[in-house]
Amino acid sequence: MFRSFLQAEPRPRAALLFLVLLAGILAHWFWNLGWAFVRDPRAGLDFGPPLVILVRLALSLIAALLTFVPTYNKVQQPTSESWVPYFLAFQNGFFWEAALEAMVRGM
């Protein structure tokens, strides 16, 4: 499955789609932190201790690995290059919990 994927897709595009998906997952994390700051600005923007940040980054990478292939299958456009696949990859990263749940229900 992965071998045919890697041979069929130009690597820079696949890597960029993966990075955009990961950026969406990290943006979702920042979105939640940002709204907590908006609700109570006196508390400050708290990212947590360095270990918490590392764990969140590791979990984001795992979530990106789990949701990349279904996302890639959704955004395949063999005819021409477009920005739409990148926006969809970001959106699927931002809403990765829903994307993963939909993938599991579809199995």
Short description:
The chain is mainly α and 107 residues long. It contains 5 helices and no strands.
Description:
The chain is mainly alpha-helical. The chain has one domain. It has five helices and no strands. Helix 2 crosses helix 3. It is elongated and about 50 Å long. The mean pLDDT is 81.
Question: In terms of topology, how is this protein built?
Answer:
Elements (H helix, E strand, L loop, with lengths): L1 H7 L2 H29 L10 H26 L8 H11 L1 H11 L1
Helix pairs in contact: 2-3, 2-4, 3-4, 3-5, 4-5
Strand content: under 5%
Average residue-wise pLDDT: 81
Provide the domain count: 1
Which percent bin holds the helix content?
Answer: over 70%
N-to-C CA distance: 16 Å
**How does the helix and strand content classify structurally?**
mainly alpha
Rg, rounded, reads: 16 Å
Give me the strand/helix succession. HHHHH
* SS element count, helices: 5
- Characterize the overall form: elongated
**What low-confidence regions span 5 or more consecutive residues with pLDDT below 50?**
none
Number of strands: 0
Describe the sheet with the most strands: none
